[in-house]
Amino acid sequence: MFDVSSVAIEDFDYPLPEEKIAKYPLLQRDKAKLLCFGENGLPKDHLFCELPELLSKDTLLILNDTKVVYARLFFQKESGSTIEIFCLEPIEPCEMQLAFAQKHKCKWKCLVGNNKKWKSGKLSKHAQINNQDITLSVERVEQKEECWIVEFEWNGNKSFAEILQTMGVVPLPPYIKRQAEETDKSEYQTIYADQDGSVAAPTAGLHFSDETFACLKEKGIRYDFVTLHVGAGTFKPVSTKTIGEHSMHTEKVCVSKETIADLISYCDKKIVCVGTTSVRTIESLYWHGVRLLNSDGAYKDMDVKQWEPYQKEVCVSRSEALKAILQSMEQSNREELQGQTSIIIAPSYRYRITDGMVTNFHQPKSTLLLLVDAMIGNKWKKAYAHALENDYRFLSYGDACLFFKEEKS
After folding, report:
1. From CA 383, how far away is CA 38, in angstroms rounded?
2. CA distance 402 to 54
3. Whose CB among 192, 306, 339, 341 lies 3.0–4.6 Å from 284's, allowing a Cys bridge?
4. d(CA 34, CA 356)
5. How far apart are CA 351 and CA 283, in angstroms?
6. What is the pLDDT of residues 62-101, one digit of tens each?
7. What per-residue confidence (pLDDT) applies to 222?
8. What's the pLDDT at 248?
9. What is the mean pLDDT of residues 3-14?
10. What is the pLDDT of residue 408?
11. Which DSSP string do the residues of 265-331 spell out, in sequence order?
12. Torsion angle of alpha carbons 25, 27, 29, 33, nearest 10°?
């Protein structure tokens, strides 16, 4: 039996010149390049606006409607030093939407940049929101490994969402080596973003335009939304030699009952996920369903562990797993499945619900490349080599791919 924990991250390295990393998006979202494999098994060049033509009518597209929050806050000390607070996840209250709705105070788990210059006490900054003078102060409460629990306090009647909207900065990925600009507030956001909570965009979705959706509707291709709030861990490099030593980040997930029902109705058709976050959400649903089938079936919040899919052979169809979730939701009168996942999708993983995916080009030695390999095997190397030779743009603001899973024997 294949030991997934022994997979060497070195096997997922490739040369990525700095000039291939897109620093800015294209002016027209859907004019990005789209790479897929032709019937001859060779990479084929398309434009993203051709996506509806490349999908069959019986396809259900799944997109992640999370919304990037302006999670970076910069505080200036009297000495002149700048301290950066990068909000990762809410602690008090811990529920995302409640945390954003808070007025006056809340606690968050944060990364603190230039922490050694912050000796003690509170930091504060000022802004005007709708003609109201607001002072935001922040204080460290306790250290949690490389992070800090910090408490924010502010005057006035503004929500924390409004505070971040005005005082925060777009959290561009570290490999986009420039300061965030005003245009990033709209460009680094999908046009269908709806649920506040991510510190990184689900970037495969950045290519969708109103015209793309109009063409999908015209062809009769259905699409649904899930929510996975992307954490900063998505940029965490694999620093271990094998993936068995790598600890995956946990991310919050929410899926509506309506989407579960649609997935069930497409079990004998094609289910294509837009972005790795949608893939991880949809595959996590399967394992949650399996867990329900092996218990009393009562509703439980989803909590899929990193290595759960690899612990034993499971012979449950995607329809059975999804129906178990739907039944548990109906019995408990719930309209949404909430929870979290830290699933790692790596070579040897057998996709249970996802038939294909739209995804950008990923960093060398990243867990996202492992996820792609699990779908198309070593063919990703051929695709990436072709992209590098043909002036594709890489990473978050770059071009996209459309891949369908290789059947495993």
Report:
1. 11
2. 9
3. 341
4. 14
5. 7
6. 999 999 999 999 999 988 899 999 999 999 999 888 999 9
7. 98
8. 93
9. 94
10. 58
11. HTTTSEEEEESHHHHHHHHHHHHHHHHHHTTT-----EEE-TTGGGSS-----HHHHHHHHHHHHHH
12. -70
Rounded-to-integer distance, Cα 321 and Cα 46, Å: 35
At 189, list the tokens. Answer: 């956001």
Close Cβ partners of 108 (under 8 Å, ≥ 6 residues apart):
87, 88, 89, 90, 91, 99, 149, 150, 152
Cα–Cα nearest to 394, from 366, 364, 365, 362: 362
CB 236 within 8 A of CB 268: no
Pairing of strands 251-256, 147-154: unpaired
Q: What does the DSSP 8-state code read for residue 20?
A: G
| Domains of the chain listed by start with CATH number | 4-67+197-404 (3.40.1780.10), 71-169 (no CATH)
How is residue 300 written in tokens? 């439980």
Strand partners, 150: 108, 140
Token pair for residue 296? 């009393």
Fill in the amino acid letter for 305: K
Residue 285 scores a pLDDT above 70: yes
Dig out the tokens for 315 from the structure. 């012979």
Q: Strands (DSSP E) along 177-257, which ranges?
A: 195-198, 222-228, 251-256
Is 185 in a helix, a strand, or coil?
helix
Strands 123-129 and 59-64: unpaired
**Structure tokens that stand for 17 in this block:** 């010149």
- Mean pLDDT score across all residues of the chain: 95
